UniProtKB/TrEMBL annotation:
InterPro entries: DNA_glycosylase (IPR011257), Endonuclease3_FeS-loop_motif (IPR003651), HhH-GPD_domain (IPR003265), HhH_base_excis_C (IPR023170), HhH_motif (IPR000445), Nth (IPR005759). [4Fe-4S] cluster binds at residues 195, 202, 205, 211. This is Endonuclease III. The lineage of its organism: Bacteria, Bacillati, Bacillota, Clostridia, Lachnospirales. SMART domains: ENDO3c, FES. It comes from Anaeromicropila populeti.
Length: 215
C-alpha cells in the first residue's frame, strides 16, 4: 500500500483485527514443534515449500537422531538428505542446515542470533525464517509472509504486491505493531480453516463484509 491510509480504511482494518481476535483469540501459537531456538530454526528451514505437518513428522525422528548443533554440523550430507527427503528440496536444505549450524557454532557460540541482519546471513535463512525466529523465540514484533498470509492479505486488500518482502513492508505500514505476530498466527489458522486456497468458504466467513476480493 502506498500513500496515507484514510480514516475509513484504518477503521476497516481495525474491524478485521477485532474479528480475528474474537474468533481465534490472542493466544500465541507456533505450528512447528521445537524445544530449542536452533530446533525451530532447522524446522523453519525445512518448512520451505512444505507443510508444517510434514515437517513435524520429519523432525520428530530427526531431533532424536541429531540431538545437538554439533551433530547437525558434522552430519554426512547424503545421510541428512535421506533423513529429510520427504520435505522436498532436500539437497539444498541438507546443505544449508549443515552450513547454518556450522556458522552458529563458529560465529555465534551456538546461540541463534536475534538481529534480522545476522539471522539472514545464515545459510538457508531469508526474512520469512528470520521473522519466525524473532517472533517466536525473542517475541520481537515481526510479520511472517507465508502462503496463507500472502494470499489472504491480498484478498483483504491489505496489499497488492506479489513479492513476500514487499508484502511484509506493506503489512508493517497498515497493521499496529502489537498485532504483527498475532496476525501471522490468526491468518494461518484462517487459511487452514475457512479461507482455504482451493475452496474458500466465503459465505461462512466472518470477514466476508470486509473482504475486498469478495466485494
Amino acid at each position: 500500500m502506498s500513500g496515507r491510509i484514510t480514516k475509513k480504511e484504518k477503521e476497516r482494518i481495525q474491524k478485521i483485527l477485532d474479528l480475528l481476535d474474537e474468533h481465534y483469540t490472542r493466544e500465541y501459537k507456533c505450528y512447528l514443534n521445537h524445544e530449542t531456538p536452533w530446533q525451530l530454526l532447522i524446522a523453519t528451514i525445512l518448512s520451505a515449500q512444505c507443510t508444517d505437518e510434514r515437517v513435524n513428522l520429519v523432525t520428530k525422528d530427526l531431533f532424536h537422531k541429531y540431538t545437538s548443533l554439533e551433530a547437525f554440523a558434522s552430519a554426512d550430507q547424503k545421510e541428512l538428505e535421506q533423513d529429510i527427503h520427504s520435505t522436498g528440496f532436500y539437497k539444498n536444505k541438507a546443505k544449508n542446515i549443515i552450513a547454518c549450524t556450522n556458522m552458529l557454532l563458529k560465529e555465534y557460540g551456538g546461540q541463534v542470533p536475534e538481529n534480522i541482519e545476522e539471522l539472514t546471513k545464515l545459510a538457508g535463512v531469508g526474512r520469512k525464517t528470520a521473522n519466525v525466529i524473532r517472533g517466536n523465540i525473542y517475541h520481537e514484533p515481526s510479520i511472517v509472509v507465508d502462503t496463507h498470509v500472502k494470499r489472504i492479505s491480498r484478498k483483504l486488500g491489505l496489499t497488492k504486491e506479489e513479492d513476500p518482502v514487499k508484502i511484509e513492508f506493506d503489512l508493517m505500514k497498515v497493521l499496529p505493531k502489537e498485532h504483527w505476530i498475532l496476525f501471522n498466527i490468526q491468518i494461518i489458522t484462517h487459511g487452514r480453516g475457512l479461507c482455504t486456497a482451493r475452496a474458500p468458504q466465503c459465505e461462512q466467513c466472518f470477514l466476508k463484509e470486509l473482504c475486498k476480493e469478495r466485494k
